[in-house]
């Protein structure tokens, strides 16, 4: 699993010496806030996303495996058609029946797995819940880093339920159609004006920055660090596709060579050996693309090494923002940097979503 961990939400806790506004928001929205809170809804969405992803990947794996086996069995049946017919006419019917039976089971298994993926565990299903969880996480930190909250302008009249509930409701009613639209859009930094940040105490700003860096940025940087250090597996090498293709072509050429040799053989025994070798390379030429297609289908359904270079670049951006926050003392510049951080993480999540939606998988 390479999902972004929820530690920066589940592990939220404020130091007793933290600013009062920070402690109040954690009481209203954090782990202490109780049932129906922003935190509880995040946990529900996060757990649902993880559960649906597991089911989707399991179904995708079974579909790829069953389909590959079915294709290979069909190729074997075609390659050994004449020997199977001869055996059938001689009364030995079990080889043909056994191969046909296994092939029927493989096809039925694949059909059920594909139908299960398309009807019950579509890719968009777990992506929708994953994105809802990320939007709820983003909402918490947007509220936390809003100058209006720290100056007391929000929530109006101290009504946290209305202030937070409106945003939460919009997230919870997101649909799959909207998911595609969001993946193609990009957030724009709001960059609060200096006047909107006036009145916030320097000690409160320092407490906010320390909390934000130790929770939000720390968890996100750890995630990107882990992704950036992932070593691409041999199966992810883009050169493998032409390698398998030309290997199949080479197998065809070898097949032709032994086929010609079988006709030119001086004895029936040598001709039979050459024909057997010829059939083997013919099978190899047909099986290799099927096996490679099965592997790629399986891997495309999982989030294997999805752009480690992009993760490294994102890590670099967050490190620079973290360093800037550690140096900034001016209130307006601190809130502007916090806004840039959240806008960047929002954009990164949408880019991840777009890549996953465009993955080469039928579900």
Description:
The chain is mostly helical and 363 residues long. The protein is 74% helix and 0% strand. It is built from 14 helices and no strands. Helix 9 crosses helix 14, helix 11 runs antiparallel to helix 12 and helix 13 runs antiparallel to helix 14. The longest helix has 42 residues. The protein is elongated. The relative contact order is 0.13. The N terminus is likely disordered.
Average of per-residue pLDDT values: 81
Decide which structural class fits the backbone: mainly alpha
- Helical percentage: over 70%
User: What is the alpha-carbon Rg in Å?
Assistant: 29 Å
By DSSP (H or I, 4+ residues per run), the number of helices equals 14
Profile the largest sheet: none
Strand content: under 5%
Order of helices and strands: HHHHHHHHHHHHHH
The termini sit apart by: 19 Å
Unreliable stretches: 1-6
């Amino acid at each position: 699993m390479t999902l972004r961990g929820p530690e920066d939400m589940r592990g939220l806790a404020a130091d007793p010496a933290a600013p009062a506004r920070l402690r109040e928001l954690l009481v209203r929205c954090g782990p202490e806030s109780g049932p129906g809170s922003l935190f509880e809804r995040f946990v529900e969405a996060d757990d649902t996303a993880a559960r649906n992803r597991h089911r989707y990947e399991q179904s995708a794996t079974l579909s790829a495996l069953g389909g590959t086996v079915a294709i290979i069995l069909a190729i074997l049946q075609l390659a050994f058609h004449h020997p199977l017919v001869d055996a059938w006419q001689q009364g030995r019917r079990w080889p043909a029946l056994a191969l046909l039976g296994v092939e029927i089971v493989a096809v039925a298994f694949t059909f059920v797995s594909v139908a299960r993926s398309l009807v019950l565990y579509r890719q968009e299903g777990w992506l929708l819940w994953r994105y809802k969880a990320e939007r709820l996480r983003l909402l918490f930190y947007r509220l936390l880093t809003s100058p209006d909250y720290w100056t007391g302008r929000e929530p109006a009249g101290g009504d946290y339920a209305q202030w937070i509930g409106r945003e939460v409701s919009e997230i919870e009613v997101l649909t799959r159609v909207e998911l595609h639209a969001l993946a193609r859009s990009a957030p724009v930094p709001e960059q609060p004006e200096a006047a909107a940040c006036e009145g916030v105490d320097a000690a409160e700003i320092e407490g906010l920055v320390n909390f934000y860096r130790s929770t939000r940025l720390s968890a996100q940087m750890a995630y990107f660090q882990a992704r950036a250090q992932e070593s691409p597996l041999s199966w992810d090498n883009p050169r493998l596709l032409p390698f398998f293709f030309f290997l199949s072509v080479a197998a065809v050429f070898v097949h032709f060579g032994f086929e010609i040799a079988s006709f030119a053989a001086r004895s029936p025994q040598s001709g039979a050996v050459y024909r057997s070798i010829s059939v083997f390379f013919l099978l190899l030429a047909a099986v290799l693309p099927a096996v490679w297609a099965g592997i790629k289908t399986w891997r495309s359904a999982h989030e294997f090494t999805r752009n480690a270079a992009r993760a490294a670049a994102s890590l670099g951006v967050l490190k620079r923002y973290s360093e800037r926050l550690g140096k900034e003392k001016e209130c307006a510049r601190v809130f502007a940097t916090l806004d840039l951080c959240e806008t960047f993480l929002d954009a990164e999540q949408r880019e991840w979503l777009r890549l996953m939606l465009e993955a080469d998988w039928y579900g």
